[in-house]
Amino acid sequence: MSETVTVRQNTVVAAVIGLGSMGMGMARSMNQAGLDVVGCDITPDAVDRFVANGGRGATTAIEAATDADIVVSVVVNAAQTEAILFGPDGIAGTMKPGAVFISSATMDPAIARDLSRRVEACGHHYLDAPISGGAAKAASGELTIMASGSRQAFELARPALDAMAAKVYELGDAAGAGAAFKMVNQLLAGVHIAAACEAISFAAKQGLDLDKVYEVITASAGNSWMFQNRVPHVLAGDYTPLSTVEIFVKDLGIVQDMARAERYPVPLVAAALQMYLAASGAGMGRDDDASLARIYALLSGAKLPNTSGGSLA
Amino acid sequence: MSETVTVRQNTVVAAVIGLGSMGMGMARSMNQAGLDVVGCDITPDAVDRFVANGGRGATTAIEAATDADIVVSVVVNAAQTEAILFGPDGIAGTMKPGAVFISSATMDPAIARDLSRRVEACGHHYLDAPISGGAAKAASGELTIMASGSRQAFELARPALDAMAAKVYELGDAAGAGAAFKMVNQLLAGVHIAAACEAISFAAKQGLDLDKVYEVITASAGNSWMFQNRVPHVLAGDYTPLSTVEIFVKDLGIVQDMARAERYPVPLVAAALQMYLAASGAGMGRDDDASLARIYALLSGAKLPNTSGGSLA
Predict the structure, then answer these.
(1) What does the pLDDT read at residue A24?
(2) CA distance B184 to chain A (A)
(3) Given this model, what pLDDT does residue A266 score?
(4) Which terminal Cβ of chain A has fewer Cβ within 10 Å, N or C?
(5) Residues of chain B with pLDDT under 50
(6) Which intervals hold domain 3-hydroxyisobutyrate dehydrogenase-like NAD-binding (chains A, B) (predicted)?
(7) Residues of B annotated as part of the active site
């Protein structure tokens, strides 16, 4: 290791906390861009795989972050992000002074503002930087990042952002804006997946040729990014999780909580969330989110391709 | 007129019943393609405008249809379509034997099947042919048509279809399929407009830069054809009707009625329909359908661009 350290003395050191399908791709993208990347994860196997691919591994977040100029947090939600920073083994007190913490989890903007304030109080910088694009784009370093934070946070984060993203939206000089833009996107994405499933199973219920429905709708005013992306899973009867039902149980839950606090009615989000809850409650929480189509089919007797059919009766 | 008749002896004669924003464009497109087009409308002024643009006028549907090889019905709904055919002054008994009736109104597929059966019993042909694309595409002869019907109905209708449409989807050999595909499209379109309005006013409630929201979302997974098309109306504060709230009160109402009859639950359609009803009930029924954003703003205090603001209190 000493040789590597010598060679990389002027190299930016980045820690990635969370080596799931997104974090692994982001860590490798930074590695390939020439950063010295240290990864850690609660699953030792994930760390081993990253090390086998040329990264450095660490067993704890504190160890990973100790020499890092940039810490990229790629965990599931606000609670895990807070635990990484301020939990019993949190890094807020042990990070290198003046380093930047890049937070990529989708969360309520109010929490992003609070975490930013507390991280800055410890002498570090905070970039509110939710990500979009999925595992494939993470692996190729072509994510979309919706970011906000101080000028200095952006400057310090730049080598990581350049390595991970095809597009970085700079959405404001304070934490919260990035999170808020992400929540607007998730509101639409979550409703559109549910609408796509409501529509394709409705077409199945009427006995229409579903491949033809896909062809016509994707060329018509009823199209959405999500209809185009998710309906092929239904047509193939393949619910292998590319993005799970539980993600939108979480994200539409955040939208609903935000909206309730702000006294803003969200009838479409509320209706869609019930369908994600139904899918999760029916045992499909870890399946692909296109599984909502199977719930509509179960509730109506519609026949979808390559599914066992199934019945609630 | 006699000279014209002589010149056009081998010309296909088409009647257009209903010269609204769609029908006028369709009639002119057929005229420009060399068909001999007779237009009629309950508004004499519309007929005068069509005649001033080189068409022929008629005062009643019976008069318009009497010599027509093709009758194109461009009215609002199933009830008007049935009245044209089988009402007190209906054309079903007076149409030229063997002519084709092209029905473009959005309607329940079961009604389309019933009308087709009754028209065929009178010795004519019926093409179930809902249209999509809006007034501009109608004027340029570039509509999308979702059609089903017998081979003979398609053959007879071909000169009209070629003149009116950029794309004709041939969706089956019997009436009903065209209507069903259109309803699937309307389900999605209606839900997506409501989702776009729910999202953009939610962004406004949080004080986000709405032009930036539009830029980010249209490049992200939250995008839809309708978000991209309708949100600019909200950003401009311009609710001049390009397509009215009442259209989706009607079309989501049809979807809900179909779904109820089939015992198919449509929670997203149900939620969206309530918002169209709220907009209509608040006096915006004849405004642009992006007016749903104004309802969300009224219900939450969100501030949208160039609106008087308004308050329910």
Answers:
(1) 98
(2) 6
(3) 98
(4) C
(5) 1-8, 313
(6) 176-295
(7) 182
Interface of A with B in 250-289 (CB under 8 A): 255, 259, 262-272, 274-275
A138 or A313: which leads in pLDDT: A138
Report chain A's mean pLDDT, rounded to a whole number: 95
Domains of chain A with CATH codes:
2-174 (3.40.50.720), 180-300 (1.10.1040.10)
The answer on pLDDT for A300 being more than 90 is yes
Choose the catalytic residue: A96, A137, A182, A250: A182
Q: From the list B181, B206, B225, which residue is nearest A221 (CB)?
A: B225
Q: Reading across the β-sheet that carries A125-128, which strands appear in turn?
A: A56-57, A36-40, A13-17, A70-73, A100-103, A125-128
